[in-house]
């Protein structure tokens, strides 16, 4: 035991002496640098919410502009969409439709009924008639019609001596289109409506023979209005709301219908005026001494025979004459009886 204790002491002493010697043989450890300052951690801001993903913008597709038909130049015929089925008009509709022309002389009325079936040509014809109204009809106007090679149906050309009639027709295109369709669909019903209106005006005393027209009725449903002189036509002026209404007591019915100056039609015979009439009992329209047979079912192909040839329009029509502004004549004043004028003045005094 003593020997073990002495040996332990010797080993301990040797380690104490050897430690500094070993320390001198090895380089000293590297210096310990101070630890770098730890900066405070940046605060964590809340994450921005993700922007919603909108659908990709698409270029707006605008509706395609409709392709309008090219406007025809002056004098070129223009077509209209055709109805497949003939229209129907009730008798009351027809009565109202024909009221403004029912009291026209038969020859002029026949020209209006046939020309109405070419309603798309009426506006151009009305413009031409206004621009040439200074020719005052007769030979000068007939020559201008031939030289200008007008492209319209002869029934329309036949109305050029009557610019006031064409103005009336072109001024209400909805009415004239309906009238033309009614003539094509059921000419007999249109003519019956005219007879009903004539009967009303005759029964009330408005329609009667005078210095311009001759009125007679050879059979029921056959009231004819003819010019006193077959070579001249007078255009009547009247108010449909008056001549188809019972007159009030004392009203002078003889002044309800007045007339424009007469128009000679002999020069215009090639455009239907050579032999034009109405067959009321057979519902016939006679133009150029032949029945006019245009109907709804053959309206695209029927061509009535006229003396005047139908012009072939190859290029734009060239105006050959001077054009002037048209001023429609004022309708003639309706004359009243002296008793009626006295009654009107008395009513005026009572009103003041």
Keyword list:
three-stranded antiparallel β-sheet, globular, 11 helices
Helix and strand topology:
Elements: H1 2-25, H2 91-98, H3 106-116, H4 122-131, H5 138-147, H6 154-157, H7 163-170, H8 173-185, H9 187-203, E1 213-219, E2 222-227, E3 232-233, E4 236-237, H10 240-243, E5 258-259, E6 263-264, E7 277-279, E8 284-287, E9 290-291, H11 338-351
Antiparallel strand pairs: 1-2, 3-6, 4-5, 7-8, 8-9
Helix pairs in contact: 2-9, 3-8, 4-7, 8-9
Q: Radius of gyration over alpha carbons? A: 51 Å
Strand content: 5-15%
* Net shape: globular
Q: Treating each run of at least 4 consecutive H or I residues as one helix, how many helices?
A: 11
Oligomer class: single chain
Question: Which class do the helix and strand fractions yield?
Answer: mainly alpha
Low-confidence stretches: 11-31, 54-60, 65-80, 334-352
Instruction: Name the strands of the widest sheet in spatial order.
Output: 7-8-9
Query: In this structure, how is the largest beta sheet organized?
Result: 3 strands, antiparallel
Mean pLDDT: 78
Question: Helical percent range?
Answer: 25-40%
What distance separates the N and C termini?
165 Å
What does this structure look like?
With 352 residues, the protein is mainly alpha-helical. The chain has a domain at 91-292 and 324-347. The chain has eleven helices and nine strands. It has helices at residues 2-25, 91-98, 106-116, 122-131, 138-147, 154-157, 163-170, 173-185, 187-203, 240-243, 338-351; strands spanning 213-219, 222-227, 232-233, 236-237, 258-259, 263-264, 277-279, 284-287, 290-291. The strands form four sheets. It has a three-stranded antiparallel sheet with strand order 7-8-9, covered by helices on one side. Strand 1 (213-219) and strand 2 (222-227) form a beta hairpin. Helix 3 crosses helix 8.
């Amino acid at each position: 035991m003593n020997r073990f204790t002495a040996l332990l002491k010797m080993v301990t002493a040797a380690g104490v002496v050897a430690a500094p010697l070993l320390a001198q043989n090895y380089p000293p450890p590297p210096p310990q640098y101070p630890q770098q300052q730890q900066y405070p951690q940046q605060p964590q801001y809340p994450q921005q919410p993700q922007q919603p993903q909108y659908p990709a913008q698409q270029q707006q597709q605008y509706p395609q502009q409709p392709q309008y038909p090219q406007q025809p130049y002056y004098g070129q015929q223009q077509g209209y969409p055709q109805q497949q089925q003939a229209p129907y008009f009730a008798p009351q509709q027809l009565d109202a439709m024909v009221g403004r022309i029912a009291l026209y002389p038969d020859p002029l009325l026949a020209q209006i009924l046939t020309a109405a079936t070419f309603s798309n040509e009426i506006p151009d014809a009305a413009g031409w008639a206004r621009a040439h109204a200074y020719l005052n009809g007769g030979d000068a106007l007939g020559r201008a019609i031939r030289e200008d090679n007008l492209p319209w149906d002869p029934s329309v050309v036949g109305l050029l001596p009557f610019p006031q009639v064409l103005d009336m027709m072109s001024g209400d295109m909805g009415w004239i289109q309906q009238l033309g369709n009614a003539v094509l669909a059921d000419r007999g019903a249109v003519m019956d409506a005219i007879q009903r209106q004539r009967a009303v005006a005759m029964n009330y005393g408005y329609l009667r023979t005078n210095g311009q027209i001759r009125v007679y009725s050879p059979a029921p449903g056959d009231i004819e209005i003819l010019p006193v002189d077959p070579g001249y036509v007078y255009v009547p002026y009247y108010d449909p709301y008056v001549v188809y209404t019972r007159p009030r007591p004392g009203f002078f019915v003889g002044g309800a219908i007045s007339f424009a100056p007469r128009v000679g039609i002999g020069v215009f015979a090639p455009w239907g005026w050579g032999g034009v009439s109405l067959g009321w009992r057979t519902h016939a329209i006679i133009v150029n001494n032949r029945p006019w047979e245009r109907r709804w079912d053959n309206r695209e192909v029927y061509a009535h025979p006229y003396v005047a040839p139908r012009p072939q329009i190859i290029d734009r029509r060239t105006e050959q004459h001077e054009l002037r502004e048209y001023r429609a004549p004022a309708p003639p004043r309706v004359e009243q009886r002296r008793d009626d004028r006295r009654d009107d003045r008395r009513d005026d005094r009572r009103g003041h």
